[in-house]
Amino acid sequence: GLEEGAKNQLSTFSNFITTINQKKEGIGNRNSPTQLVIPNIKNGRDLPSLCLDVRQKQRMSMDTLPQELKATIPPEPSLPIRTKTVKDFQDDMEKSKASGDWKAVHNFYSTTFDSFLEINAAFKKDTNCPFNTIEDSGIDAKFVNVVYDALLNTPQDVQKSVLKGIINGLLQEWTGPRTKDDLRAYCILLQNPQFSNTSTYVIYAHLLRQIAALTEADHHFLVHWSKKISQKRFKQVVERLLQFISLRLFPAKPEEFPPMVKCTWWIPSATKVLALFNAANSLISPPIISYTDFYNSTLDHIDLMEEYHNWQCYGNSHRFSFCQYPFIISIAAKKVIIQRDSEQQMISIARQSLVDKVSRRQKPDMNMLFLNVKVRRTHLVSDSLDELARKKADLKKKLKVTFVGEAGLDMGGLTKEWFLLLIRQIFHPDYGMFTYHKDSQCHWFSSFKCDNYSEFRLVGALMGLAVYNSITLDIRFPPCCYKKLLSPPIVPCDHNMLVGICGVTLDDLFQIMPELAHGLSELLSYEGNVEEDFYSTFQVFQEEFGVIKSYNLKPNGDKIPVTNRNRKEYVQLYVDFLLNRSIYKQFAAFYYGFHSVCASYALLLLRPEEVEILVCGSPELDMSALQRSTQYEGYQKTDLTIRYFWDVVLGFSLDLQKKLLHFATGSDRVPVGGMADLNFKISRSETSTNWLPVAHTCFNQLCLPPYKNKKELRQKLIIGISNAEGFGLE
C-alpha cells in the first residue's frame, strides 16, 4: 500500500540519511557492522559465535559471557503512562473503518512509534517491572501482533506517521549505552511488516545497522528474546531480511535505492542481524523453523568462489564475505564451492605430478594424472584396500576404476559401480565392521576390538572420494555420524588431539538404538527409588565374540550405585560411552580416512545434515520431476514409445524405480540439485525390438528400442534393470 508514496518518502528520507551519516562520523566506526570477525583460516579456528548453524559449539547464554560484557545496566528512564489495551485498539479500528474518521488510530500510531520510550510504554507488559533477564523480554506479543496486523490496512498518512516516528526513534537512540527498553524497541521494530516494501529500505537499513552494532551482551539478549517470537512472526522476519539482501544485490528498480558505493554496509548489517535469528533458532529443539529457511537462493547467482577465496585469504581482516555466515548459503551453492575447490586441488596435484616427471627427464604418461584403481570383482575389498593404501599420494586426483577382465572404459559409470559394490560388501552384516539396527534402519560402528582398523579408514576414504568426485552413496549412517565427522572440521596439527568426539545426547541415541534410548528415558522419569528398584552401578556390559565384558563409566564405577540424584550423570556417561568412547579407534580411523581425501576449508561451511546430503544424496524419488527434466535424442516426448515408457515407470513400485535409476545412472540416489541435476537422456536405439534397453551410466543415458506396445516395453525394461551388474563393449 506504500508504492504510491514511494518517491515522496525517499525524498523525505534523504534528510534522514544525511543526519544519520553526520552523527555516525561524529561517533566514529567503533561499532560498525562491517567490522566483522571471520575465522583465522590458517589455524582452522571456528566460525564466529553468531554462526551457530555449523557445529553449534557455543550456546548464547549470559553465563558464558566474560565479566567485562556483564557490565552494569544503564538505568531505565521512566516511561510515559499509556493505558490502551488490545480491546481498546480494536474498538478504535472498528469505529474508524465504519465512520472513515481515523484520527484516534492516527494519534495512537504516531504517538506509539514516536520514540523508543513510547514503544515500551505501549507494548511493555508491565511498565513498573524492569524485565532485564534473557528469560522474559516483557513484550506484550499479542498487542504487538494486533497493531502490526492492522497497520497495513490503515490510510497512507497513518502508515507514514509510523515511519516518521521510527526515524525520530533511530535518531534519538543513535548514541549512548543501550538500556533493555532500547533492546525491546529494536525487537518490536524488526517485526514491522512495512519493511517488506522496498520504499522503506533506507529506514530498515539504518535500523539493521544499529542492531548489528550493538555489543555482544546486547546481542545475547536479542537472541534469547527472539526465540520466544511465534513461528509465524519469526519466519516473516527471516524472510524479510533475506528479501532485503536479495533486492540489494539484484534490485528490480535500481533507482529506488542509493548507489551501492554509498551503502556497502547494508548487506553486512542485514546478514549479521540474520545471524542473530539463526542463533536463536539453534537454541530451540526442535528449531523454530528449518535451517533451510535461512538459505538465500539469490546467492547461487553471485561469484561464490570469489567469496570463498576472500574468506580464505583475508583471515581475521574486516572484509565481509557471505562465507562468514554459511547458514545463508544453500546446499546447492555449497556443493558448487566444494566441487570447484576439489577440481582446483585435482588440477594442482596433477600439474605437480607432471612437473616432477618432466624435471626427472621422464616421459609423461596420461595415467599419472588420475587415481587409477584396478580391482577384481572376486577380491573387491582387499584389492581396493591395497590400491588406496599404495596410492595415498594420488587420492586427490580424478578417480578412474578398472575391473580386471572387463572391457569397460571408465567415463564415470565404472566408478559408480565400484562404489556401489564396495559399500554393499563392506556393510554386509557378515563382514562385521558395522552393526545394522532394524528399529532405526541405520548402521553403526561395531565396538569389537581388533589389531588393525585400516578397513574403517578405507570406508572413510570412500566417503571422501565420493564427495570429491561428486558420487552419491547408499550409506545409512545416523545424523550423529556426520556431527562426529565434523569434530573438528579441519584435521588438527596436534596428532595427540582427540578427533571424532562430539557432545552427544539421548536424542542422538534414539536415532540409532531407540529401544535402549527409551529405557534410559524411562529411568530418568522414574518416580520410585532408582537405587533399590534398578540395582545398577556405573558399569555397563557388552558382548564381544561371545564373551561378556564389563566397562566402568567412571573410575570405580562398579562400586557407585545409580540413584535418583546421579541418574542424569549415568545416562549421559552411558550415551557418551556408546557413541564416543567404545568406538573411538574405529571412528578415528574413519575420520582420518575421510579427511585424507576431503580435507578442505569448504567443510567449515557445512552442517552435519548437509554433509549427509552431499555423501548420500536424497532417497526421495520423484519420477514426475525426472519426466519433466528428461532430454530426448531420436525421440519426441509425444512419441508413443516415450508415452509407454513413462506410463510403465510411473506405475512401478519404489523398488523397481530405484533399480531403473541405478541401471541408467549407476546410483539409486538423487543428487543435491534434485532430479533435474541428473541430466537424464533417453535415446532411440535402432537395434531390434528383441533387444533389451542399454544404459550408458557415464552419461546418465538410456538407449531404448522402439518397442511396439506397452506390455513388451515393460517386460524388456524389467529384465534389463534387474540384471544390471557388469560392463562390456560391443
Write the layout of secondary structure elements.
Layout: H1 6-27, H2 86-99, H3 103-112, H4 116-123, H5 141-151, H6 156-172, H7 180-189, H8 201-212, H9 216-226, H10 231-249, H11 266-282, H12 304-313, H13 331-359, E1 370-375, H14 380-390, E2 398-403, H15 413-426, E3 434-437, E4 442-445, H16 454-468, H17 479-485, H18 506-510, H19 514-525, H20 530-534, E5 539-544, E6 547-552, H21 567-579, H22 584-598, H23 608-616, H24 623-629, E7 631-633, H25 640-650, H26 654-665, E8 681-684, E9 694-696, E10 701-704, H27 710-722
Parallel strand pairs: 1-2, 7-8, 8-10
Antiparallel strand pairs: 3-4, 5-6, 9-10
Helix pairs in contact: 2-3, 2-5, 3-6, 4-7, 6-8, 7-9, 8-11, 9-11, 10-11, 16-22, 17-23, 26-27
Structure description:
It catalyses: S-ubiquitinyl-[E2 ubiquitin-conjugating enzyme]-L-cysteine + [acceptor protein]-L-lysine = [E2 ubiquitin-conjugating enzyme]-L-cysteine + N(6)-ubiquitinyl-[acceptor protein]-L-lysine. It is an enzyme of class 2 (transferase). Its EC number is 2.3.2.26. Keywords: Ligase, Phosphoprotein, Transferase, Ubl conjugation pathway. With 730 residues, the protein is of the alpha/beta class. Among the domains are: 86-294, no CATH class; 617-723, 2-Layer Sandwich (Hect, E3 ligase catalytic fold), CATH 3.30.2410.10. The protein is built from 27 helices and 10 strands. The protein has a 4-stranded mixed sheet with strand order 7-8-10-9, covered by helices on one side. A two-stranded parallel ribbon has the order 1-2. Helix 3 runs parallel beside helix 6 (156-172), helix 4 (116-123) crosses helix 7 (180-189) and helix 7 (180-189) crosses helix 9 (216-226). The longest helix has 29 residues, at 331-359. 36% of the residues are buried. Mean pLDDT is 84; it is low at 1-72.
